Amino acid sequence: xxxxxxxxxxxxxxxxxxxxxxxxxxxxxxxxxxxxxxxxxxxxxxxxxxxxxxxxxxxxxxxxxxxxxxxxxxxxxxxxxxxxxxxxxxxxxxxxxxxxxxxxxxxxxxxxxxxxxxxxxxxxxxxxxxxxxxxxxxxxxxxxxxxxxxxxxxxxxxxxxxxxxxxxxxxxxxxxxxxxxxxxxxxxxxxxxxxxxxxxxxxxxxxxxxxxxxxxxxxxxxxxxxxxxxxxxxxxxxxxxxxxxxxxxxxxxxxxxxxxxxxxxxxxxxxxxxxxxxxxxxxxxxxxxxxxxxxxxxxxxxxxxxxxxxxxxxxxxxxxxxxxxxxxxx
Length: 330
Hints:
Helix 3 links the parallel strand 2 and strand 3 (about 90). An eight-stranded parallel β-sheet has the order 4-3-2-1-8-7-6-5. The chain is built from twelve helices and eight strands. The model has no long low-confidence stretch (mean pLDDT about 95). It is of the alpha/beta class. Helix 7 packs parallel to helix 8 (about 200-210) and helix 11 crosses helix 12 (about 315-330). The chain has helices spanning about 1-10, 35-50, 70-80, 105-120, 130-135, 135-150, 175-185, 200-210, 245-255, 260-275, 285-295, 315-330; strands at about 20-25, 55, 90, 125, 160-165, 190-195, 215-220, 235. Helices cover about 45% and strands about 10% of the residues.
């Protein structure tokens, strides 16, 4: 079975494919522990100008630590800077419900969030929640179907689903392949971000996608295997927010059948392996350190409640940044 899956994946490699890239943006912080809104706006502009879509109010942006007012301020700033260009917004309900919430309450909470995101011009991605983990697989699918039915149609309409491994957040879960198939059957769900950090699980989803709904997007969230794009995944990555210009260049090289793709991908993967080492949630501080080195933010402070990396990491990140700049400008 594993050999057959691998053989199918090898045949799927397709140089020249246009890759859709989405970067999960960091919300930078000041040393005083407040959001750095000017820094956030710079990151938004840089990402959009590079040709990637930003994803805001994601785990990279500390969505689980933000108040409702702060999440709305993130959306407001994004709407203003994006000015009609596509972006993704996290529909986060973890703090709105207790873990024993009924299905109807979960649906209502998600609908409130997607209405806010769509009113700002964004595409909602449905964050999982502890209450969702208490449901049966059939009930989970019913929630997604009911929520998706409320999403606005149109060019930026519909919603994205999300599988988030528990190494990122305790309220996350990876669904069975059967649940994944049933989610693909919901027409308003046009894609799913898969963040298990396990390429075998992602290959399985790509095989089912190709067979059952080829236009459905599988966005890799595997920051430890960013080459999943050569097998047919697109991406929604926190790592892409470290250097959106480098990711955009890498994607163009693949579309142009340019073998320079591999050198740039390898260096970005080295950055990912370093930044996303255990404890995985500390990657947000790595992002802050890297972005400050590149002059994108004025501080490398993480959210006050987020885990940190040692100051000694900066020397490694500085070397990676210099090597990336040389490759991107070559």
